[in-house]
Amino acid sequence: MNGPETVPTIDPNEIGPEACYKLASGLIVPRPIGWIGSTGPHGHNLAPYSFFNMVSGAPPTVIFSTGLVEGSEKDTLANVRATGEFTVNIVSEDLAPAMNATSAAVARDVDEFELAGLTAVPGDMVSAPRVGEARASLECVANNFVPVGTPPRGNVVVFGEIVLFHVADGVVDGTRVDLDALAPVGRTSGPGYVRTRDRFEMLRPS
User: Would you list the domain boundaries of the chain?
Assistant: First the structure.
């Protein structure tokens, strides 16, 4: 292994927020996609977020981060604030086109489930709907909202505890997930996505 190389540096303050977003989202890849289902006064909402991940195992906790639109909260965030509940639906390869359809900017009274031809299934423990066609869905209760940055470009990070898992037959054996059966997709940058078929393993040092 060669020694460290001297590489150019980039100051976020010098390139501006839009360029900084493109650079960071291009470097921090692949990112899992949280397909967030929620409900509110305007009906059901479904939207994908690639600022998403798991941050705790006990209790099982996920986060997703949503930006502001001209300083105003997106429908997902407004719904989750009002109800305290949401679902996370895992995007498998066959559902990628439907997920992409739900990323469109539409009026608040448009139901993205209907827009993408998906089945909205009521949650068992939460009011938010889940995607009936998803091979795995998580019912979550929001327990914290953390603002990051300054409007109109800021974000809000939502923390949610998983209170129920829905996993299709053949995807999980006990607690071991068959990734070939789940076939999840991840996000890169721009219009880019990745599959998870090319994998390798390494054992941790003892």
Answer: 32-187
Place of tokens 């054996």: 173
Give percent helix, percent strand, percent coil of the chain, each to the nearest 5: 20, 40, 40
CA gap 89, 131 in Å, rounded = 6
Look at residues 74, 61, 80, 172 and name the one whose alpha carbon lies nearest to residue 126: 80
CATH of domain 32-187: 2.30.110.10
Residues in the chain: 206
DSSP 190: T
For residue range 172-186, list pLDDT tens digits in order.
998 899 999 999 999
Residue 71's pLDDT is what?
A: 73
